[in-house]
Specification:
The structure is a single chain. With 271 residues, the protein is an alpha/beta fold. The chain has a single domain, classed as 3-Layer(aba) Sandwich (Rossmann fold). The chain contains eleven helices and five strands. It has a five-stranded parallel sheet with strand order 2-3-1-4-5, sandwiched between helices. The longest helix has 25 residues. The radius of gyration is 20 Å and the shape is globular. The model has no long low-confidence stretch (mean pLDDT 96). The protein binds adenosine-5'-triphosphate and magnesium ion. The site of magnesium ion has 3 residues, from loops.
């Protein structure tokens, strides 16, 4: 597990102004791939045990929000970091372009239905943040409506926090060059080609606008109850190590426990 101090490097301090270029996209020289592999295996086991206790404890849920540019590795993050959890303790939701019905409601309507119930870990593959990211870049709503959404997001997340939800919000940070490599890989590999879409190339042209929108979103919506982390994501082994460390640390901080059951095992017979 990477230590508290190292984790803090990736945290967006509430109230700070994010400049993404100041955050690393790769591991530092002190990090070792072989060590990381072992640490991640151990952290995944710990996370699995902690989510069982999260369920028995019943007071909290954990919502992991994952946002990233196209092809940055959201799918492999979910598979590799959360793939060994008990499916009964998890929920997942993937947010695509809203349907006609979803569009006819406020932007949080479709989100709220997918927040994890107490006792479970929920994973959002994209999220309500799309409504201040792609919506801003593409002008999908009037500017003043989008400008109002940051406060609505903070209020929504605070409400969920007060009702027992804990948050880990992850931005998978990669460079534009790295995205090029990953898009080329999608095109070249027959088993990955289905993931490629011509629209990825159009979105890529808007890279700088997306970066500016991410900076704005993370500056305005990294809060004490729901902080953002900017995860170096160009090496999967280091990305996994940071993410598993952040999640395990949060679960451990909740002081989860089994309820005390008032029975004397010596007095019970099962025939
Ligand atoms: P990958 O990164 O692996 O391609 P993906 O998350 O991009 O996966 P897709 O089905 O390719 O999955 O794309 C989902 C699309 O839906 C994204 O382009 C995203 O911007 C868009 N989307 C999600 N939420 C909204 C929203 N609220 N408004 C408009 N578009 C949205
Ligand atoms: Mg896509």
């Amino acid at each position: 597990m990477i230590d508290e101090q190292e984790i803090e490097k990736f945290l967006v301090e509430p109230g700070s102004v994010v400049e993404l270029q100041r955050f690393q996209t790769r591991a530092g020289p002190a990090q070792d791939k072989e060590y990381a592999g072992k640490a991640v295996a151990e952290l995944r086991d710990r996370m699995a045990a902690l989510t069982e206790t999260l369920y028995v404890d019943g007071r909290y849920s954990l919502l992991v929000v994952i946002q990233a540019m196209d092809a940055a590795g959201k799918d492999s993050t979910i598979r590799r970091c959360f793939g060994s959890l008990n499916p009964m303790r998890c929920t997942t939701a993937q947010f695509r372009s809203p349907t006609v019905q979803e569009k006819s409601h406020d932007f949080l309507w479709r989100i709220h239905q997918h927040t994890p119930p107490r006792g479970t870990l929920g994973i959002f593959n994209r999220s309500h943040y799309e409504d201040v990211l792609v919506a801003r870049v593409k002008g999908l709503a009037p500017r003043e409506i989008i400008n109002g959404r940051y406060d609505h997001i903070n209020a929504f997340e605070k409400m969920l926090y007060d009702e027992g939800t804990r948050f880990v919000k992850l931005y998978l940070h990669v460079s534009k060059d790295y995205q090029r490599e990953r898009l080329l890989r999608r095109i070249e590999r027959p088993d990955k080609r289905w993931k490629f879409s011509m629209s990825d190339l159009e979105e890529r042209k808007l890279w700088d606008y997306y970066i500016a929108s991410y900076e704005q979103a993370m500056s305005r919506c990294s809060t004490e109850p729901a902080p953002w982390y900017i995860i170096p994501s160009e090496q999967r082994w280091f990305r996994d190590l940071v993410i598993c460390s952040v999640v395990v640390r949060l679960l451990e901080s909740l002081d989860l426990h089994h309820p005390s059951i008032d029975i004397d095992p010596n007095k019970i017979e099962v025939d």
